[in-house]
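Collaborator request, handled under Task 6.
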Amino acid sequence: MSSVPDGKKLVRSPSGLRMVPENGAFNSPFSMDEPQWVPDKECPRCMQCDTKFDFIRRKHHCRRCGRCFCDKCCSKKVALPRMCFVDPVRQCAECSLVSQKEVEFYDKQLKVLLGGGTFVVTLGTSDKSETMTCRLSNNHRYLFLDGESHFEVELSRISSMQILTDGTSPGGGTSRASGMLLHYKPMGSQDAQQLQMEVAEDKKVASLWLAAMHKAAKLLHEARDQ
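Structure tokens returned to the collaborator:
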């Protein structure tokens, strides 16, 4: 065990390939813990094709699910940012497909969320609204809303999120995201607060931000259910 300058203890991850903070509270809310690997003695055969392992056919563990496979069934090396691996890691065919889709979120949608969008924000049942810029914090744990005032929403305290749309476009295409309605519990309170955001000035940028937030909500749900 070791420590980092701010005093957080580091422990070895289940795979033994990374050193991670002992307290998971410092993790991004999108992150997932590494799985416990199936012990070698419990997997004499590939868990996909049932090939028996021997000195020639070696066993490999998928870094995402922790199950045991032969080289053929666990040959793909794909980035796994949700578990904070720096380099692409070995994954089974099923897990690699899921990870490849998540890489797109980290490469594209996450950058959109960090960049922010402009919205007309209404807090609770108030009649007053304020034009604010909403963006995801660099540690991915908060939504920062800045205008004449400033406040923050911690993602882990959001209980529900709904993306609002403007209906079907005249050409019959896909409807565009026009706003977001979410309920969250402010720090120190157990009472849910409503927050409504409607697209303001740059509608294209704001709509892309909302679409990225919709994808982020799915990852948050998966991380909570882990």
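The cover message to the collaborator said: "The CA atoms of residues 31 and 82 lie 4 Å apart. DSSP finds two helices and 14 strands in the chain. Please let us know whether this matches your experimental observations."
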